[in-house]
Every structure is written in structure tokens, then in C-alpha cells.
Amino acid sequence: MIKVGIVGGTGYTGVELLRLLVNHSAVQVVVITSRSEAGRPVADLFPNLRGHLDLAFTEPDPALLASCDLVFFATPNGIAMQQVPELLEAGVRVIDLAADFRISDQALWEKWYGMQHACPERLAEAVYGLPEVNREAVKQARLVANPGCYPTAVGLGFLPLVEQGLIELDHLVADTKSGVSGAGRGASVAALMGETGESFKAYAIPGHRHQPEIRQTLMRASGGDVGLTFVPHLVPMIRGIEATLYARLKDVSVDLQALFEKRYADEPFVDVMPAGSHPETRSVRGVNHCRIAVHRPLDGDVVVISTVIDNLVKGAAGQAVQNMNLMFGLAEDAGLEQVALLP
Ligand SMILES: NC(=O)C1=CN([C@@H]2O[C@H](COP(=O)(O)OP(=O)(O)OC[C@H]3O[C@@H](n4cnc5c(N)ncnc54)[C@H](OP(=O)(O)O)[C@@H]3O)[C@@H](O)[C@H]2O)C=CC1
Ligand SMILES: CC(=O)N[C@@H](CCC(=O)OP(=O)(O)O)C(=O)O
Prior knowledge:
It is an enzyme of class 1 (oxidoreductase). It is found in: Cytoplasm. β1 (2-7), α1 (12-21) and β2 form a beta-alpha-beta unit. This protein is 30% helix and 20% strand. The model has no long low-confidence stretch (mean pLDDT 97). The longest helix has 15 residues, at 149-163. α1 (12-21) packs across α11 and α6 packs parallel to α11 (313-327). The protein is α/β, with parallel strands linked by helices. It has a seven-stranded mixed β-sheet with strand order 8-9-7-10-13-12-11. The protein starts with a strand and ends in a 16-residue tail after the last helix. It has two domains: 2-125, NAD(P)-binding Rossmann-like Domain (Rossmann fold, 3-Layer(aba) Sandwich); 149-311, Dihydrodipicolinate Reductase, domain 2, CATH 3.30.360. It has eleven helices and 13 strands. NADPH dihydro-nicotinamide-adenine-dinucleotide phosphate binds next to α1 and α11.
């Protein structure tokens, strides 16, 4: 059994990790930390886990965490980087659900995250945990940077076109929408039902910290520069991200449906839907899938891609479990076989 610790067990990604891991036959969760809830039984705070998990929250104690085989950080940005060197030296493998190791350019990371990196010497070693591009590296990794939710939805949508050099790269557009669980479980006025219900808005139009992360993925795939306008929106639902992506084709004769189907034919968690489909967020609620549709609107040379993921699963905890499975030589879909809730 893989002994797993979770730092930050009271957030939405923490409880989502628990929901997936308690049914994982190769895993035993041995440590779940929370400074605010230390001593309290986990199933007392999260009744969905009653009967599935007999464990209490503890303070984040480095010695306890060092006794694990793998530690997930489900903490705000800037926490994992303070503890990762010690854990790696103790032989523990780490998956960070936050952004501390996602961008390999230290100066770029510091610019967008507004803080100094605590262990820049580990940035080169961290593997960006998007299995659809980095599967073999994830299998060997000691430190995995789990991708952001929007970067997963946008990256998977653009990748087949970028890898094949089929679109103009100077001006890609990603118009994305997220449910409110993307903002985490911490209380804030902006996330109140009275503020988000029956309303819909764009945010971070001048710049969102996922823009450089998405560009990094697409530039690695293309080998050149990529121009990207990325605008996120908040929609009045709890889970889910829809990304509508626009690009200009260099060659309008390519069979895009066949291209996408071929690219993702062997991917267990990417579903290229039949031509003409419009993916719905509810079709991925609670599951680790990304569903994709590719369209050529009637006139012109534009391609439009629509992708959907559950921000808490393929956008966070599910992708982290997928990465864990790869790191430990398990079946990639172990513990991730759920079917989405519909309606
Ligand atoms: N929500 C989403 O859809 C997604 C989130 N993420 C990322 O995952 C991470 C967690 O997100 P989410 O679950 O939403 O976050 P929350 O804000 O809901 O939870 C944060 C957790 O971290 C713990 N924590 C906070 N500060 C510290 C600290 N200094 N040391 C140890 N533990 C700490 C908190 O517990 P306590 O204070 O009691 O210790 C809490 O359990 C974030 O980095 C987020 O950006 C990534 C993709 C998608
Ligand atoms: C709806 C909403 O607020 N979403 C969050 C993104 C989710 C996230 O957790 O991103 P990181 O892991 O990179 O921090 C936001 O836009 O900040």
C-alpha cells in the first residue's frame, strides 16, 4: 500500500482527493493536515466520508509527512515550495496541486505570483503533470507540478493543432468559464450565492496567472512563440469549466475531426466527441475526463474548439491521482473509474 499524506485537507481539492483516494485499492491515507481543524475527525467536517475514512486532521508535522511515500499539497500557492526540499531529501515523492513548480522560468513565476520562490533550484527537476504530454517523465518524477484547471482545459484543446503546426500562433483566443468551486473553500464575499447566483461576469481581463502557464505548454508543443488572449469568466454553477478556443487555420483542407481522434486515441481521459457535438460540463461532473469537440464554422478559416472538465477532478485532484498512478506504476485509471452524475 502507498502511504499518502495530504497537506491542506480542508479545502475543496483536499476533500476531492479524499473522495477519490478512499476507494483506491493501492492507497492508504495516513496523514491529513489542517491547522484550523487539528484534532477533529475528518468525517465530522466532511460527512460524505463517514464510513469511509477513520482519521483526524493533524497539524502539518514534517516528521509525520516524512514517513509517507507520497505527499499531496492542496494548499494555497507558496506553501509547498517551503517544504518540498526537506521531503524530497527524506525520500518522499510530492505532487503539488498549487502553482509553485508549474512555471520553470523563475523570474516569470515571481512576476505573476508576486513572491520570491523559496527553492528555485528544484524548478528544473519538477515535471509538469499533464500526462497527455509528459507521461513518461511523470513516471520517473519525484516532484510533480499538477497543472492549473484552466491550463488543463485550454491546453488539451489547442495541443493537437499546435503540435502539428496547423494554426497561426500569433493570436490564439481562449474564452473560459468556471464554476465557483474554482475559487476554493475559503470564505469570501465574491463567492457568496447572492453575488454569483443569476449573474455572469468576466474577471482578470488585464491578466490572469494561468496565461503564462498555458503559453508555456503551447510553446513547448510548438517550439516557438505563442500569442494568447485568455479571459476567464465566473458562472453560477459549482463545478465545471468550459473553454471555447479560437484560432486561424493555415490550411483549411485538414480533416480536424480525424486529427483530434488520432491524437487522443490512446488517452484514457480525453474523449473526442462526434462531429457537431457541444460538450456539457455536467457530462464530466465528478469524473477525470476532458471532453472535446472541434468545429469549423461555415465561413472563413477559423477553428473553434470546445472543451469541458470538472475543475476539481481533471482540473485538480483527479489529475493528481492520475499522476500518482503513473509515478507508482499503477493502472493509470485506478480509482478514477467513476461515471459522471447526470442530471
Ligand atoms: N479549486 C480548484 O478548482 C482548484 C484549485 N487548485 C489549487 O489547489 C490548491 C488548493 O485549493 P483549494 O482546495 O481550492 O484551496 P482552499 O483555499 O479551499 O484550501 C486550502 C487548504 O490549505 C490549508 N493551508 C492554508 N495555508 C496553509 C499553510 N500555511 N500550511 C499548511 N496548510 C495550509 C488550509 O487548511 P488550514 O488553514 O486549516 O491549515 C486548507 O485546508 C490551491 O493552490 C489552488 O490554487 C488547482 C486547481 C483547481
Ligand atoms: C473561479 C476561480 O476563481 N478560479 C480560480 C482558478 C483556479 C485555481 O485554483 O488555479 P491555481 O491552482 O492556479 O491557483 C481563479 O481564477 O483564481
